[in-house]
Amino acid sequence: MAIVNVQDANFAETIKSGVVLADFWAPWCGPCKMIAPVLEELSQKLGESVTIAKINVDDNPETAGQYGVMSIPTLKLFKDGQDVGTFVGFRPLADLEALIQPHL
């Protein structure tokens, strides 16, 4: 799984095909810092089958607003551009895998 940084300008293109886990975060957010190593582990475990798209809500308010992100971290799962699942707040690796696996 690749981890990529995305912005408002390329978010739609990033999520339009395949399975993408979007991480809406900010550098000042404590739980966002806690989930970062979990996302790294998930990336290593699932390989190229999923892309993790990190989007800083402070720098990209348009996309965060479009998807109704009110709290961070918010993790949204997309399959071929369709929103298929959401977690708000810190989640352990097993929860993230359970969200993703049915869509692979």
From TrEMBL:
* Single annotated GO MF: protein-disulfide reductase activity
Alphabetically sorted, this entry's keywords are: Disulfide bond, Electron transport, Redox-active center, Transport
Which residue intervals define the domain Thioredoxin in the entry? 1-104
- Top-rank taxon, per record: Bacteria
KW Electron transport (keyword) present: yes
Quote the cellular component terms of the Gene Ontology held in the record.
cytosol
Supply the InterPro entries for this chain.
Thioredoxin, Thioredoxin_CS, Thioredoxin_domain
Q: Does the keyword Electron transport apply?
A: yes
Q: Which GO terms describe its biological process?
A: cell redox homeostasis
Sorted alphabetically, which PANTHER family does this protein's record hold? GEO12009P1
Query: Into which family does the record put it?
Result: Belongs to the thioredoxin family.
Put simply, this protein is called: Thioredoxin
The taxonomy runs: Bacteria, Bacillati, Bacillota, Bacilli, Bacillales
